[in-house]
Design brief:
Chain lengths: ~325, ~350
């Protein structure tokens, strides 16, 4: 099996799906000749032409809004939001329109589309090129929210997202694009939307995370293993619909829970996971549920020292794991 | 620029262009049906049977004229909440409209989930509407984009009020359609008010159509109480779109003959004089007079038609009132598509 990075896995996923289904098209800023600012769509315009890999005007609301209309006219649009930080102008279209159209038409219309959005920090992107946006959208029924951590999952989940008959927000952590490499089979496969995956089994405590944080958690778990602490790392992969059974089963098994995300702590997605565990697995817990998240400041600053202070990292995670294991 | 049919087709206002007398009578029938249905909805509202009504009264000529230029079953419409006459022409029945008013389970727009007048009907290619104004303008551009990708020749028609042109989606949607020369017709039904806010506090131009050239597409202002002018202007826009030459922005100048909705009282912001004088611009009376003038409709025929439509609306009201409410068990249905 060839080893590729996460960005290449996404590009392969797009390419293979577009080759099979000519209803699929990509619409976003700079996706055409330039191949996207991260080069995810590089080369696709040559293969599929400028109509199916189409540069949009610099206008996020209509990037999503037009894809909604196109999805209702029997195509399968893939919208690219250049940076997740700029998704706010499309919030109305995503939340009020894409997520509600199937429900509000009593099942008559549906919106099969993917919104790809590079998110996350630790890449010197400052306030407006570092944001995590998942909590805003994971709140919304009717929308699916996916956040893969590995090339294998990214490609398999992307294909599932394109085939899904619902709007899917597909979150790609920018720092994982080239940093994270992994084996990806040559054959056609899918990773279903929904199920979480235990990336590392363990007995003493459960850690729930997604995206880049999975890799930091795995690193932390590895280093704690030397001191005899066995950590289970659960990759949620999909935030909506959430794999509640896997979360509860792991929590019941280990009795201790740490939730890690880069997004601001307050109102972050970790709060929902904590609430679910408190509600349904309270009697199994041996310690308070711990959340490790970004601090409650408006966004990630630029200066290296400030960025480091904002980002959760393996060291901070190790400390949180240690304290929890010792509780 | 305001155009009338006489500018476009010499002699057209006398002859009704290329439309046969039968077609003109059918157009009148739809205008009257929309009016009678609309008036009935207000009665039901005042009788406490319908919590919310929003009207198309005064917009009928603009809507019927435009919809007759479209091909039913082929072209897409994304009509805003005043689009009762639009959806009737596109094939929605009075009973279906009443099912929406009463929020019944079989309401084709939403199964009773949405407020009335949020029209949708997939078989008729009427695309579902929401309440945040202007979002459909972006969708319309996208429907046109998909049509281009598929290589089809359906035309997309959407409507909205002049207040809605202040929304970002108006700009973004029209700009995309213009840049990509998409087969989309944008009809602004300018009734000079957004609830209580007059047009001059909404825009510094006198006509919404002035904005067309700024996007690189034709902007045409038409008397929206003149059915034949609207038909002719829209017919040309449809031809242009189907040929692949792109979009048109049409401003249909209309009157809003009612308050904004059943929850509004327009006497608080419109003068008595205005409330009286706007009646003189009633498009229904205007078209009836034209048909009488042309000997295409006699007083007796109009009376018979009113009686027939009255009975149709009675039957629709009764059928819808008797239809079952949505089962509470269905609350969770259709959150996600399968
Ligand atoms: C985004 C948004 N803001 C506010 C409203 C409340 N609202 C509903 S209709 C309306 C006025 C719309 O005026 P216009 O576009 O001129 O259409 P008209 O009702 O006059 O036909 C307002 C403010 C809304 N529905 N959506
Ligand atoms: Mg208005």
């Amino acid at each position: 099996m060839p080893e590729i990075n996460l960005l290449e896995a996404i590009r392969q996923g797009l390419d293979e799906m577009m080759a099979q289904d000519d209803r699929i098209f990509i619409f976003g800023e700079d996706v055409g000749r330039r191949g996207g600012v991260f080069r995810v769509t590089e080369g696709l315009i040559d293969k599929y032409g400028p109509l199916r890999v189409l540069d949009s005007p610099l206008a996020e609301s209509v990037i999503v809004g037009a894809c909604i209309g196109a999805a209702m006219n029997d195509t399968r649009p893939i919208a690219e939001i250049q940076f997740a930080d700029f998704i706010a102008p499309a919030f109305n279209q995503i939340v009020q329109e894409a997520a509600r159209i199937h429900y509000r038409s009593n099942g008559d219309w549906s919106v099969p589309m993917v919104i790809r959005a590079p998110y996350g920090g630790g890449i010197h992107g400052a306030l407006y090129h570092s944001q995590s946006i998942e909590a805003f959208f994971a709140h919304v029924p009717g929308l699916k929210v996916v956040a893969p951590a590995t090339p294998y999952d990214a490609k398999g989940l992307l294909k599932s997202a394109i085939e899904d008959n619902n709007p899917v927000l597909f979150l790609e952590h920018k720092k994982t694009y080239r940093l994270i490499k992994g084996q990806v089979p040559e054959h056609d496969y899918r990773v279903p939307i929904g199920p979480a995956e235990i990336k590392r089994p363990g007995e003493d405590l459960s850690v729930f995370a997604y995206g880049l944080m999975i890799h930091y958690c795995l690193e932390a778990a590895q280093s704690l293993a030397a001191s005899g602490v066995s950590v289970e790392v659960v990759d949620l992969r999909t935030l909506r619909p959430l794999d509640v059974p896997t979360i509860l089963a792991s929590s019941r098994r280990t009795g201790k829970v740490l939730i890690v995300h880069e997004d601001n702590l307050t109102g972050g997605f970790g709060g929902e996971i904590a609430a679910l565990i408190a509600e349904h697995a309270f009697e199994y817990l041996d310690a308070p549920i711990v959340r490790l998240g970004g601090p409650d400041v408006p966004a990630m600053p630029f200066a290296r020292s400030l960025e480091d202070a904002f980002m959760p990292n393996p060291q901070k995670i190790i400390e949180a794991m240690r304290r929890l294991a010792a509780y | 620029m305001t155009v009338s049919i006489a500018d476009l087709v010499p002699g057209a206002s006398e002859s009704g262009g290329d439309l046969s007398a039968a077609t003109l009578r059918e157009m009148f029938r739809f205008m009257l049906l929309a009016r009678v249905l609309d008036e009935r909805m207000w009665l039901l509202n005042r009788a406490g049977k319908a919590p919310f009504v929003i009207s198309c009264q005064g917009h009928e000529a603009a809507q019927v004229g435009a919809a007759f230029a479209l091909t039913r079953g082929k072209d897409f419409t994304l009509p805003y909440y005043r689009g009762l006459a639009t959806v009737l022409v596109m094939g929605m029945t009075p009973t279906e409209v009443m099912l929406g008013l009463f929020a019944r389970a079989t309401d084709p727009s939403s199964g009773g989930r949405q407020m009335p007048a949020h029209y949708s009907h997939r078989r008729l290619k009427i695309i579902t509407q929401s309440s945040p104004v202007g979002t459909q303008i972006a969708h319309a551009a996208g429907v046109g984009l998909a049509e281009r990708i598929k290589g089809g020749d359906a035309v997309v028609w959407t409507s909205f009020g002049e207040g809605t042109t202040s929304q970002g989606d108006f700009h973004e949607g029209i700009n995309l359609a213009a840049v990509q020369q998409l087969p989309v017709i944008f009809q602004c039904e300018n009734n000079e008010y957004a609830i209580s806010v007059p047009q001059k506090q909404q825009m510094a131009v006198t006509s919404v159509a002035d904005r067309g050239p700024a996007y690189g597409i034709p902007g045409i202002s038409v008397d929206g109480t003149d059915l034949l002018s609207v038909y002719e202007v829209t017919r040309r826009a449809v031809e242009r779109a189907r040929r692949g030459d792109g979009s048109t922005l049409i401003e249909a100048r209309v009157v809003r003959l009612t308050a904004h909705s059943s929850d509004d009282n327009d006497r608080t912001y419109r003068s008595q004089r205005e409330l009286k004088s706007m009646r003189l611009s009633d498009p229904l009376a205007r078209f009836a007079a034209y048909l009488h003038d042309q000997d295409m409709l006699s007083e007796a025929e109009e009376r018979d038609l009113r009686a027939e439509i009255g009975a149709e609306v009675d039957a629709a009201t009764e059928a819808a009132e008797q239809a079952p409410m949505p089962d509470p068990e269905t609350l969770h249905n259709y959150v996600y598509a399968l």
